[in-house]
């Protein structure tokens, strides 16, 4: 081959090299073997802790380059943080009420309900005060804690108590359901209202009593990709996993109801 021809081939090779991406991480797009290297930030209601820890690990197993970081708290707290610009990629709320303002402001994409939950009376193991009904929560001497009204478990608790005609002043109002569990398990409170899944997740720390009317107050959990997510493909992959048969099986195993 002549020298001019070799030079032409070299120029062509350089041009092709410059046009082709060096790897998936350069483009941010999923590669043939999975998602590009990145950290995915999931904001999730505190009651989802066990299930979402498992689902995060499952997504990481399917995409070894992805590191899923889940932040758990009350849905109202997480929604406020996202509205203020927190770098979340996915938001999973314990109710539509806390997600709706974000949707109204186009801060999240379309939301899908992926699970349901109902309330239980939580007491110390062995139920030493023999608390069996919602009325027992208002008994003199019983220290009862609830979630704050703006938190989904607090709003659900208010509905459940109102339906039963029970009025009480809690010893404290917590910002997420995990804090209610912690106070009862630590002996700082005698009883409280938590989700059925919290009882299932803490069999050695608390005991659950199903109150009358629990089935009439069902919490519905929506999930959505945050609109300005820098990892939209990975965020959608996590949402798809939650909605998939495998994801639904994980949620069911943790005590969640089908959507």
Q: Topology, pairings included?
A:
Elements: H1 3-19, H2 24-27, E1 38-45, H3 49-62, E2 66-73, H4 75-83, E3 90-92, H5 96-104, E4 112-117, E5 119-123, E6 144-147, H6 152-163, E7 172-174, H7 177-185, E8 191-195, H8 196-201, E9 207-209, E10 219-225, H9 232-243, H10 245-253
Parallel strand pairs: 1-2, 1-3, 6-7, 6-8
Antiparallel strand pairs: 3-10, 4-10, 5-8, 5-9
Helix pairs in contact: 3-10, 4-5, 9-10
Task: Put the structure in a nutshell.
It is built from 10 helices and 10 strands. With 259 residues, the protein is of the alpha/beta class. A 5-stranded mixed beta sheet has the order 2-1-3-10-4. A 5-stranded mixed beta sheet has the order 7-6-8-5-9, with helices on both faces.
Task: Outline the structure in words.
Helix 6 links the parallel strand 6 (144-147) and strand 7 (172-174). This protein folds into 2 domains: 38-116 and 220-253, D-Maltodextrin-Binding Protein, domain 2 (3-Layer(aba) Sandwich); 119-216, D-Maltodextrin-Binding Protein, domain 2. By secondary structure, the chain is α/β, with parallel strands linked by helices. The protein has helices at 3-19, 24-27, 49-62, 75-83, 96-104, 152-163, 177-185, 196-201, 232-243, 245-253, and strands spanning 38-45, 66-73, 90-92, 112-117, 119-123, 144-147, 172-174, 191-195, 207-209, 219-225. A 5-stranded mixed β-sheet has the order 2-1-3-10-4. The longest helix is centred in the first third of the chain and has 17 residues, at 3-19.
């Amino acid at each position: 081959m002549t020298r001019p021809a070799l030079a032409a081939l070299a120029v062509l090779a350089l041009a092709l090299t410059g046009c082709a991406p060096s790897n998936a991480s350069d483009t941010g797009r999923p590669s043939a073997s999975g998602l590009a290297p990145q950290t995915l930030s999931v904001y999730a209601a505190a009651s989802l802790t066990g299930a979402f820890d498992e689902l995060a690990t499952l997504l990481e197993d399917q995409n070894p380059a992805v590191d899923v970081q889940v932040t758990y708290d009350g849905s109202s707290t997480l929604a406020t943080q996202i509205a203020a610009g927190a770098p979340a990629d996915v938001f999973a709320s314990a109710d539509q009420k806390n997600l709706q303002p974000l949707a109204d402001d186009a801060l999240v994409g379309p939301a899908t309900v992926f699970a349901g939950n109902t309330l239980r009376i939580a007491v110390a193991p062995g139920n030493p005060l023999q608390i069996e009904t919602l009325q027992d929560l208002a008994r003199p001497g019983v220290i009862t804690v609830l979630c704050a009204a703006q938190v989904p478990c607090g709003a659900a608790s208010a509905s459940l108590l109102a339906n039963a005609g029970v009025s009480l002043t809690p010893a404290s109002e917590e910002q997420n359901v995990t804090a209610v569990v912690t106070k009862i398990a630590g002996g700082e409170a005698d009883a409280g209202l938590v989700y059925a899944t919290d009882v299932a997740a803490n069999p050695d720390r608390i005991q659950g009593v199903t109150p009358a009317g629990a089935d009439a107050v069902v919490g519905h959990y929506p999930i959505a990709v945050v609109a300005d997510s820098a990892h939209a493909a990975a965020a959608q992959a996590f949402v798809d996993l939650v909605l998939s048969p495998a994801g639904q099986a994980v949620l069911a195993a943790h005590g969640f109801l089908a959507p």
